Amino acid sequence: MKLVLMQFLTLDGVSQGPGAPDEDTTDGFIRGGWFVPYLEEGFMETVATWVGQADGFLFGRRTYVNFARDWPKMNDPNDPIGSKMNGLPKYVASNSLKEASWSPSTILSGDVGAEIAELKAKPGRELQIHGSARLAHSLLTKELIDEFRLVIAPVVLGQGRKLFIDGGAPAGFKLANVERTVGGLAIHTYEKAGPPTFATYGAS
């Protein structure tokens, strides 16, 4: 399976708390809910298409707990997103979580990178990470992410946890697709392309 990260970002790279003011107030973050004003039907159709390509979902502990609280309530069998979220296998990377009640779920602990590499080796289409920026950062360091789908909102927060942080491992990607939504979001799709390259401008 291909490991694909879907992440909502601001122009200054913040990924924290896109869905509500109280979604994630870690470290005093007070500007949550910044993504919601840009949602519209066309983008939700795009998300439904993405989710339709999944054969499983991978979460960090915090995102899993939030999703496990909310998604089981969205149980309309005709909802293409909810039916996939609730029905497909879910994996949560955590060394502290003892129970994963959002069925079918499996807790990955210990050498999480090795366990995820084993999942990727199985037949299938996409293993998708939704949110879970801390997990995404660790998997980027381990060179396990094959594709990024970054949905960028036209807003600068000046505060909040970022997807790409100082001290992270360098990585190269190639731009595979760019789209825009009527609500003002920019969707950039990047595919893994090995280590970054460097050069000097003007060199012969």
Can you tell me about this structure?
The chain is of the alpha/beta class. The protein has a single domain (21-42, 51-186), classed as Dihydrofolate Reductase, subunit A. The protein is built from five helices and eight strands, in the order βαβααββαβαβββ. The chain has helices at 41-51, 61-70, 80-87, 112-120, 133-141; strands spanning 2-9, 54-60, 90-93, 105-108, 126-130, 147-152, 173-180, 186-192. It has an eight-stranded mixed sheet with strand order 4-3-2-5-1-6-8-7. A hairpin with a 5-residue loop joins strand 7 and strand 8 (186-192). It starts with a strand and ends in a 12-residue tail after the last strand.
Give a quick precis of the structure.
By secondary structure, this protein is α/β, with parallel strands linked by helices. It has helices spanning 41-51, 61-70, 80-87, 112-120, 133-141; strands at residues 2-9, 54-60, 90-93, 105-108, 126-130, 147-152, 173-180, 186-192.
